[in-house]
Amino acid sequence: EARSSARGAHAAFSEASVDMARAGDISSSPDTVGVCVYQYKMPRLHTQEDIMANVAKICGIVRGTKVGLPGMDLMVFPEYSTHGIMYDEAEMMTNATTVPGPETDAFCAVCKEVGVWGVFSLTGERHEAHPAKRPYNTLVLINDQGEIVQKYRKILPWTPIEGWYPGDKTYVSDGPKGLKVSLIVCDDGNYPEIWRDCSVLGAELIVRCQGYMYPSKEQQIMVAKCMAWMNNVYVAVANAAGNDGVYSYFGHSAIVGNDGRSLGECGEETDGFQYAQLSVSAIRDARANDQSQNHLFKLLHRGYNGVYNSGDGDKGVAKCPFGFYETWVTNPELAQAQVEKITRSHIGVTCCPVPGIPTPDKLQTKTLEHALPDLT
Prior knowledge:
Elements: H1 2-16, E1 22-23, E2 32-39, H2 48-68, E3 72-76, H3 89-95, H4 102-114, E4 117-125, E5 136-142, E6 148-153, E7 173-174, E8 180-185, H5 192-200, E9 205-210, H6 217-231, E10 234-239, E11 241-243, E12 248-250, E13 254-256, E14 262-265, E15 272-279, H7 280-289, H8 295-299, H9 304-308, H10 323-330, H11 332-342, H12 360-371
Parallel strand pairs: 2-3, 3-4, 8-9, 9-10
Antiparallel strand pairs: 1-15, 2-15, 4-5, 5-6, 7-8, 10-13, 11-12, 13-14
Helix pairs in contact: 2-4, 10-11
């Protein structure tokens, strides 16, 4: 009778238990999403023919990787993996594409053919006012039916080097097996606000596609783990590797659990990948039942035990205590001025000029010229 009770208790536990995120296998299950981050060698391309040949190569990698990883549900490629970095502005403008366009048509076709989801980079996507304005740095999430389900434009281009026009919104989409997915790009991830925005909107996996180079390797490895931990979210990072003649890319593509621990991390090799299974039920269980490190819940229920035991309700304090954020939302120009007061009030730096960015003296001269009346 005791054994019978024990068996019954074990059965009840098994039925109520959840799966876990894990690495080391090539499979996935109804509850786990098989995610692969591919560490593509940074290409150096110049023409549309170069680009489409590279697209065909990427499609071939998708096909081959699915053979080796039959459980793969989602495959992620780095920023710039499709077009490379076009350091020549005329080439960048000429080769800017559209969504949909020839590149996404090919990616949609291979995702449908193989039966996987994919995240692909487009650098760049033509601005609505093309060619009067610079292109966007764009990611697309394509489902296993060959449909584009999310298009994200990089909000925080890597100034002063990148010349992309900034996007203005994050998105959350239902991904493979219902896992909720947000996309961000490279330098976006250096700002904690974007991680929080995606997470609070419901993202369970944040995909960060990077074309990140030395010397900031150690910082970026830490960022992925810290942001996963602080936002109770899975993180998948696909970074470039190799050298394109200008920069050396450090790789270290990784998949991180929602507790901030690495499930798999590449080294610096080109054409390496990592693979892990992300449990849909486990992250939802953690967000519902974890307490001391449930950062999303605690942020909007500040001090709930002290508030409750003081007779002020069981919700804690929801009001934002951070004055800067309130100012940023209600008066962005004032917030900008506050930041300029502790940094600088101009975009250029005299001691280290960057082509295309005016230094303070040149900016002042240009402003003065515009201010003077035409006396001729």
